[in-house]
């Protein structure tokens, strides 16, 4: 178990020394890049046990990020849903507005200790880009962010934030112009100069050590949440829910509960316009084993093994792969993964905003949507803990323009109180 910032991680000694979670993970890269990954892995192994590194990260988490983030009992939402009590782990309250800052501070500190001059990364919704640009500004590092051209337009507020922080935002215009293509471009840029720069990947994907390293930095979410639930309610939650694109916030949350067999773990994937529409990014639900961005995991691909284009209303979820540890946890049945459509996510976006005064990111809205369904299924007396991975400031203009409130009332399976509330705030559909 890694000695990182009071983390409660028990991953059954995973990954192994070659970076495998069961049969998933590893390093599938050209030989020259394998050597670069070995350098990063060795440095992480060294500094993750270095008291001065841990103390610096711990202090920044407390005084810069604002940790611990609180757990909030969403009483009105719980009452309206009519089932289990719903709790939110408020990662949206972190500095920069999402969970991404947790691993970006760790990665930037690692880069500084390794003597790197520049950090580079991909971003989808822009939250990782903003968080890394923030960490780079804090530590005096140059920062290049690769972002799909579609996402540059869609997430304009975050693009502006990155530029204000001093980062260079590089639009990626090839392929689907979204997250996968941004990852491709960032890896290529890393190959050009692995001596002076380091790739700070934005989630638990990619070759070893990235899935392990990002999970470890993010597991502060689960560590805090576990302790907070015990302090608040004198018991663990019955279920934990988090959205999954690549899967960093989910792995951070799940890591502390993996050994608690009475706690059900639920990952929520983007079903987009529907699983049969071809416009989704439900990798675990519809994917097959394959290699993407240097690791073996589940990948959305055609019969020839070509990666399929993906789609989600949430830019941070439209990735055709998933972290190898998620693939492993799915394979052994420890985590259940569920698809949520755009419509359901937008409903959750509006409902949480109006019922609790909390505007969630569209990524987080997927988790909220499934969490409400689960609360209804479990019934009264149970407790559902949702990772609210980010806030929705970046999404407001897009949602209001493309998804008018009055067109997004909940479906008929929602409790009457919940449904009537939406009618009251949005009006009946025509």
Descriptive overview:
The protein contains 17 helices and 14 strands. It has helices spanning 31-47, 51-65, 75-81, 100-113, 127-139, 149-154, 156-164, 179-192, 210-218, 220-233, 248-254, 283-286, 324-331, 342-356, 362-378, 396-402, 416-426; strands spanning 20-21, 24-25, 71-73, 85-90, 118-123, 142-148, 168-172, 197-199, 239-243, 264-272, 288-292, 295-299, 335-341, 383-388. Helix 9 packs across helix 11. The model is unreliable at 5-11 and 422-430 (pLDDT under 50).
Largest sheet: 6 strands, mixed
Give the fraction of residues assigned to helices: 40-55%
Overall form? globular
Radius of gyration equals: 20 Å
Number of helices: 17
Number of separate strands: 14
Distance between the termini: 57 Å
Main sheet strand line-up: 3-4-14-9-10-13
The proportion of residues in beta strands is 15-25%
CATH topology of the largest domain: Rossmann fold
How are the SSEs ordered, and which strands pair?
Blueprint: E1 20-21, E2 24-25, H1 31-47, H2 51-65, E3 71-73, H3 75-81, E4 85-90, H4 100-113, E5 118-123, H5 127-139, E6 142-148, H6 149-154, H7 156-164, E7 168-172, H8 179-192, E8 197-199, H9 210-218, H10 220-233, E9 239-243, H11 248-254, E10 264-272, H12 283-286, E11 288-292, E12 295-299, H13 324-331, E13 335-341, H14 342-356, H15 362-378, E14 383-388, H16 396-402, H17 416-426
Parallel strand pairs: 4-14, 5-6, 5-8, 6-7, 9-10, 9-14, 10-13
Antiparallel strand pairs: 1-2, 3-4, 11-12
Helix pairs in contact: 2-4, 4-5, 4-9, 5-7, 9-11, 10-11, 14-15
């Amino acid at each position: 178990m890694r000695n990182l910032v009071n983390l409660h991680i028990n991953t059954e000694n995973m990954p192994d020394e070659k970076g495998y979670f069961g049969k998933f993970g590893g390093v599938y890269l050209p030989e020259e890049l394998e050597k670069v990954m070995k350098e990063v892995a060795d440095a992480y192994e060294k500094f993750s046990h270095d008291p001065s590194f841990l103390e610096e990260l711990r202090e920044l988490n407390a005084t810069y990020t604002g940790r611990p983030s609180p757990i909030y009992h969403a009483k009105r939402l719980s009452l309206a849903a009519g089932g289990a009590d719903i709790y939110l782990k408020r990662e949206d309250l972190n500095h920069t507005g999402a969970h991404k800052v947790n691993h970006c501070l760790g990665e930037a500190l690692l880069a500084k200790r390794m003597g790197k001059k520049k950090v580079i990364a991909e971003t989808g919704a822009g939250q990782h880009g903003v968080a890394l640009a923030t960490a780079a500004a804090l530590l005096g590092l140059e920062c290049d962010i690769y972002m799909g051209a579609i996402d540059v337009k869609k997430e304009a507020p975050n693009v502006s934030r990155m530029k204000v922080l001093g980062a260079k935002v590089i639009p990626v215009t090839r392929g689907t112009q979204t997250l996968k293509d941004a990852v491709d471009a960032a890896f290529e840029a890393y190959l050009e100069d692995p001596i002076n720069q380091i790739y700070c990947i934005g989630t638990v994907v990619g070759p070893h050590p990235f899935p392990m390293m990002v999970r470890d930095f993010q597991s502060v979410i689960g560590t805090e949440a576990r302790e907070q639930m015990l302090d608040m309610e004198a018991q663990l939650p019955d279920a934990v829910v988090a959205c999954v694109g690549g899967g960093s916030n989910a792995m951070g949350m799940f890591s502390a509960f993996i050994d608690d067999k009475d706690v059900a773990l639920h990952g929520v994937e983007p079903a987009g316009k529907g699983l049969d529409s071809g416009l989704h990014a439900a990798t675990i639900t519809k994917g097959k084993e394959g290699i993407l961005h240097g690791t073996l995991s589940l990948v959305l691909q055609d019969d020839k093994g070509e990666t399929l284009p993906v789609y989600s209303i949430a830019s941070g979820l439209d990735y055709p792969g998933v972290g190898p540890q998620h693939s492993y946890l799915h394979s052994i049945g420890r985590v259940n993964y569920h698809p949520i459509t755009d419509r359901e996510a937008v409903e959750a976006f509006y409902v949480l905003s109006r019922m609790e005064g909390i505007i969630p990111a569209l990524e987080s809205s997927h988790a909220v949507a499934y969490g409400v369904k689960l609360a209804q299924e479990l019934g009264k007396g149970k407790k559902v803990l949702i990772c609210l991975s980010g806030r929705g400031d970046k999404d407001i203009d897009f949602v209001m323009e493309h998804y008018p409130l009055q067109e997004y009332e909940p479906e008929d399976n929602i409790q009457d109180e919940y449904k009537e509330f939406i009618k009251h705030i949005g009006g009946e559909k025509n």
